[in-house]
Amino acid sequence: MTKLFDTLAPDNWHLLIGILFLVLLGRIGAWILEGKSDSTRFPRLVALIDLIVLPCAVLVIGSLVQLVVGLLEIPRAGDGIRVLTQLLVYLSAGWALARLIEVTLLDRSNEELSGRIPKLVTGLIYVAMLALGIALFLWQRGYSFTGIWVSTGVTAAVLGLALQKTLSDLFSGVALGMERPFHLGDWVELKDGTVGQVVDVNWRATRLRGWDNATHIIPNSQMAGQAIKNLHDDQHLYAPWYFVKVPAEVDPRFATALMLEAAMRCENVLKFPYPIVRLSDATTVPFTYMVWVHLKNYPAMFRAREELFREIHRGLQAAGIEAAPQVQEIRTRRAHITQAEPPSLLLALQGLDLAGFLTGEELERLSSRAAFCQFDSGHVILAEAVQSGAFYVVAAGLVEAAITLSDRTRKVTETLGPGKYFGITSMLTTDPSFLEFTAKSDVSLIRIDLDCIRGLVSERPELAERLAGVVKERLDAAEAARVASRQPARSLSMRDIRDRIETLVWRPSRRHRGR
């Protein structure tokens, strides 16, 4: 470096000015590239140009200053300018190298807050590269690293004692950056209840922005020494659970069904994974129920929680149930006894879409031949390849219809809620069920025998058209799933299904006339 400097300085001013002009042109070109739009920006190319241009510019400017000092005949200035120029060359090269590393890391990360690099990391990169430049300069000047380390040991010990707290925050920040228990953009909850979004981690503190837009500045040593609950960013599902108290007089199955229907009505609550309602505590009065839901992220929790409680209150109130929070005062008035029962069979059947085609007398006849049945979550109500002997109506809960594909995997074709029905396809076509119906939650079903449905269809042939449409829709859905898996499926036309229904209905009546 010294020989190069001495070669450039004397009698080469015109060459130095030309090199400086080229350096300026290179920097202007880098500035033009950097000023482009996001789609055509080349940050790594600009940083690479700086890595070449900046040391050259410092070297050329130092040579020109050396030339001017020589012309002015200023005594003892040449050696100082030479040493200072060499030091600035190493420092500028270290800074440019740190800049290249920074833009490389930024180019690999997202533009979102969660992909940004904390300022602590970038600061450490610059400090390390500048320290490397100083070390190379000292090594080039003939200094020994061992001697420097020994001579500065006492000073380092004094500074360590004086800056103990600051150094603790610094190294705690380094530990947080290496372990990465959270990323920029994550929402975290601290031990004292503070909730905020991580917006920066620097050499001294972590900055959290709360819901009130205030910034909480937490020293890194405190952040590293306490339990942190990471609620994650906007791209992470959030699954909270809430507790609702309902009078003990209400049937638990009826209460869980009401709250499940309320959760399914909420727009801000995800339908998959399904909401889950469970009886949490029946040892005290009132009973406590847990409602577990999934939300698209943590910030959506406030709107979804309000909507969930509103729908639960509306559903309980419509059923004549009063929510029973714990009251911490003694009252002498007569307590209201809650009397709420699940809907009767007749009322449940009146909610079917088929009820519009039936008279009141026919609905009463169906209700007299029907019965309630309950199944726990996960129970297979109607297995695949098994013929159904009854017609099932979902009174409360969720039932999942799935088909087994050729690769032995299950594909869900439909989720049946209250008012939906199944078993009609297998019952009326006399074929085994091509779907498997499983209780996705605790469900209450209305079971109607085959003979009762036959009697109605024989008296009202127009119902056959309606039932054939239902059968056709489910056969088409199953056929589409099988075609997607390259499994052959038998296709039945609307006329074929209607003929089967008529044959099934009229065959018993002909046998009766023959007898």
From TrEMBL:
Entries under Gene3D superfamilies matching the protein:
1.10.287.1260, 2.30.30.60, 3.30.70.100, Jelly Rolls (2.60.120.10)
Q: Which GO terms describe its molecular function?
A: mechanosensitive monoatomic ion channel activity
Subcellular location per the Swiss-Prot or TrEMBL entry: Cell inner membrane; Cell membrane
SUPFAM superfamilies tied to this protein: cAMP-binding domain-like, Mechanosensitive channel protein MscS (YggB), C-terminal domain, Sm-like ribonucleoproteins
* UniProt entry tagged with the keyword Transmembrane helix: yes
Q: How does it assemble?
A: Homoheptamer.
What is the protein's known function? Mechanosensitive channel that participates in the regulation of osmotic pressure changes within the cell, opening in response to stretch forces in the membrane lipid bilayer, without the need for other proteins. Contributes to normal resistance to hypoosmotic shock. Forms an ion channel of 1.0 nanosiemens conductance with a slight preference for anions.
- Which protein is depicted? Small-conductance mechanosensitive channel
